[in-house]
Amino acid sequence: MIHPSEFGALRAFAAVAAQRSFSRAAERLGVSSSALSQLIRGLEERLGIRLLHRTTRSVSLTEAGETLLAEIRPAIDSLTGALEQARDAARRPAGTVRLHCFHAAADSFVVPILPRLARDFPDITLDLTIDDTVLDIVGSGYDAAIRIGEVIERDMVALRLGGDIRQLAVAAPAYLAEHGIPQTPKDLLEHRCIRWRWPGQANPYAWEFFEEDRWFSVAVEGPLITSSRAVMMDAALAGVGIAFLKEESVVGAFARGALIPLLENWSVPFPGNYLCYPQQRQMAPALRAVIDTIRSHTARSDRGAGEAPNRPISDDSAQRGSA
């Protein structure tokens, strides 16, 4: 069997044979002439035969050297070609990228880039899972995820996407006419609230408000618990109770008077969605292409995003934890 170190010696021998010069071969291989000479000498000693005639002015092959070169050149050419193909594959974005994404984030950050991704990177397959489950990204086999900052694992790299998010308590005029208007967040404890639960979690989400430079939560009660924000919206429109929804999802209902915003003084924006992925020394080109495409699409929003109270991630590139 050939010792692994002999592959380097054989490659060095082939280079000297092709260049007919130790100095030119050494320059081509990126080594010193003395190191190259030692490689060839060691190869000759292990084989027990002289491969090269050396003079101060020239280098030529012995008969044994000619025979060996004829045998190894096809293999060396094949190995060189295989290595070049591997390098090309490493440089060319190709393969499958598994991305986990919350529903609202998919509409804002993934769906818009699909045509560009398909056009610019035809060899990439985006395997997209859309749901609001908070799961272990790496343990579940995903390459990356888009989620809000407060549910990002501490050891993940997190890149901010888009602008801030604001959540508002909202209700239909008919509900407020019957039950009254809450004046402070604590008044919600006396109201019928439509609660939302993270998929896979036992308890409903406690509504969060901001006052005197701190966040606080209110564990509301009410007739409905759901994991669907769409159901929350429909129930609020039907007058079932007060819902807690993202402002961007209810502006249309505000405009037509179907829903009324409540407790706005306690509802402030906070940093929203992040593209997160595990730290890695060498990122696959396909994953890099997907990340760059998403970030490029959201670059204008990133530049326009203002400062918001820290809840809990506030910088543009963070490795922070869940709240």
Give an account of the 3D structure.
The chain is α+β, with helices and mostly antiparallel strands. It has three domains: 88 residues, Orthogonal Bundle (Arc Repressor Mutant, subunit A), CATH 1.10.10; 118 residues, Periplasmic binding protein-like II (D-Maltodextrin-Binding Protein, domain 2), CATH 3.40.190.10; 102 residues, D-Maltodextrin-Binding Protein, domain 2 (3-Layer(aba) Sandwich). It contains eleven helices and 17 strands. A six-stranded mixed β-sheet has the order 4-3-5-16-6-17. It has a three-stranded antiparallel β-sheet with strand order 13-8-14. The protein has a two-stranded antiparallel sheet with strand order 1-2. Helix 1 packs across helix 2 and helix 1 packs across helix 3. The longest helix has 29 residues. It starts with a helix and ends in a 5-residue tail after the last strand. The C terminus is likely disordered.
The description of the largest β-sheet is:
6 strands, mixed
Give the full name of the CATH homologous superfamily of the largest domain: Periplasmic binding protein-like II
Q: Output the CATH class name of the largest domain.
A: Alpha Beta
E-strand count: 17
**Cα-atom Rg, whole angstroms?**
32 Å
Rounded average pLDDT: 85
Shape: rod-shaped
- Terminal CA distance reads 58 Å
SSE order: HHHEEHEHHEEEEEHEEEEHEHEEEHHE
Number of helices: 11
Uncertain regions spanning at least 5 consecutive residues: 301-323
Beta percentage is 15-25%
Percent of residues in helical segments?
A: 25-40%
- Overall number of domains: 3
CATH topology of the largest domain, by name, is D-Maltodextrin-Binding Protein, domain 2
